[in-house]
Amino acid sequence: MAKEASYKDKKVITIGIVRELTGLSERQIRYYEERKLIFPERTSGGSRKYSFADIELLMEIAEKIEDGVQTYEIRQEMKKKNADATKLRNKMIQGQLNAQFGTRKR
């Protein structure tokens, strides 16, 4: 059975609603997309669709920009967080395998 995405991760919100919820302009939102900080889905007609998780991320990005952090630095921080999460997930999987099969990675 496929795991269903959380409501926070479903890309169903239009850019206009995102603009209203965040207070950001459409130009700012598109800029963050151009800078590879946010990744909306596209409809067949080309409209952007965002999730609640995207909105939270946009708010974090806007706050950092306001504090003077450059988009490059934000992107590097995001890459590091993703890499750390991947390492942790791999460690957890290895632990589960060790527990299940009584083996240890050497």
Automatic annotation (TrEMBL):
InterPro entries the record matches: DNA-bd_dom_put_sf, MerR-type_HTH_dom, MerR_fam
Name of the molecule in the record: MerR HTH family regulatory protein
GO MF annotations in UniProt: DNA binding; DNA-binding transcription factor activity
Record's keyword terms, sorted: DNA-binding, Repressor, Transcription, Transcription regulation
Organism: Mesobacillus persicus
Domain HTH merR-type: 12-80
A Pfam family per the record: MerR_1
